[in-house]
Fold this sequence. Notes:
The chain has 299 residues and is an all-beta fold. Helices cover 0% and strands 45% of the residues. It has two domains: 15-101, no CATH class; 106-292, no CATH class.
Amino acid sequence: MGESGYIAPGVGRVLVDGKPRPKFRTVEDATEFYAGRLAIRGSSDKQIKVADGVNPVLGFIGLEGADPTSKPTDRSVAYAAATDDIGIEAPLFVGGGYAILGKLAKGFVAVQGEELFSWSNGRVVPGMMMGGVPAIRVPYVKKAAEFDTTIDLPAGIIIEDVIVQAVTVAESATIDIGTLSTEGGGDADGLIDGESVATAGFVAHNLVDATAANITLGALLVESDIKTADTTALYYSQKKIPGYVVDALRSLSYTTSDATVAGNFYLKVISPGVVKVGKAAAGKDASSADGDIIIEAVI
């Protein structure tokens, strides 16, 4: 982890600083139920399970204050599931104003001070609010063949739009963004199709053009393509409202021109389970594997 000003907790703790208000709830499902992950409601108000990126988030799973008879030996060990709704309990940290050691999802890179949002498997992801919607930031570099980001899009979320931010640019360079084509129903340019990354800055979509192939919004985000009756016809892509509803767990991919380019693209996500949960106390590179990150919690 980068420099945060905090002292990283030992393996028997996840709380870094502050005094969160714990609520004790029964562990309904042990899958990915580790301290430091985010939790959602289970089958009843007395039960919790790990956050899925789709349902509303309640708080962070704690380790401190857990009953010694059910407390894992350290944070690398998952809680066991209860056999009924009054069995094994875990502390649920709520209220904000504390720092906790959480997990940054694989495929992402967080920058110190960046906002963090809830995601599937109790992880967090970096981004910012954009037009009133959480915009999840994904870095890109030169990848002349389709590249699997290892980022999974949870089934049920809505991708409202994708906004590209070009940083390192090259003349005539473009980027495609979509779902991994080698998976059933995958579409490698289904979100963004040939968007220019030749000029630094945020990139506006090309939605109207005399050549249909020059439209840069991908098919997954398009409701219909319209052709005018002008002598020189124009083509227009009507955006799908509210966006692309992810129909199954999908792998996110992108492809660039064979040129030295780099930057970010932002997935604007509509989902009750994707909300701001804190800020990154230090930078973290989880491009190869998910990683520990100190989160200054706001929930």
